[in-house]
């Protein structure tokens, strides 16, 4: 089997069905989809069961417990049968050629371990927002990994053997991917397809969750920047996380948190906007 798609979900009844449909719509056909319920209290499990009944390639796992994303990601790695494992979130949408184009990169480049993609961003109501990560990955040293977000986590396709040797650390909640990139930098080859192959949903993350992610970032900086960042650079990086938390809390008073993350996006042209809208419409029908 070529690809395992791992999709953990928790209370995603509004977006889960279209996320699964986007996987069913892939041009690459040789895949399995592992759906893992993390103790949802809404109708997500009912939706997942309905979708699993439509295709024998879908495996649904539900133990009724809420163990968190990191536990579920490592669980998927442990049971995956595909040669490659694709990350996918329950509120995102794969574009049709995502898996085929990512898989092709591996076939032509044996040294690559992780293939990410660019993404179109959409809001909680499926409205197009922008485009992200359209530049190639150029890492001259480990210091570069601390300068900007390296990969869009749910866009990645990873060699199964690499994943089994490099799993997520449960201590780094809400930044487990960044910690993994830092920890494995010396023996990992990253690659990005600069074409958008994912509709990545952005919205107003709760203040609690955002603050938690900033706290985890500080942990990562302190652990993985030794000998990489100077004392001044480390202090500046840590200060920035505190500042972002304060700004986010202020914006949260007016439900404007999205403004802090919107600067990651470049603007869309009319053709791209129409493409995003038509893609979503087809999956909903």
From TrEMBL:
Residue ranges of every copy of the Glycosyltransferase 2-like domain listed in the record: 5-133
The question of whether Transferase is a record keyword is answered with yes
Keywords attached to this Swiss-Prot or TrEMBL record, sorted alphabetically, are:
Transferase
The record's listing under Pfam families reads: Glycos_transf_2
Q: Which Gene3D superfamilies match?
A: Spore Coat Polysaccharide Biosynthesis Protein SpsA, Chain A
Q: Which GO terms describe its molecular function?
A: hexosyltransferase activity
Q: Which InterPro entries match?
A: Glyco_trans_2-like, Nucleotide-diphossugar_trans
Q: Does Cell division show up as a keyword for this record?
A: no
Q: What is this protein called?
A: Glycosyltransferase involved in cell wall bisynthesis
Per the UniProt record, the source organism is Flavobacterium xueshanense
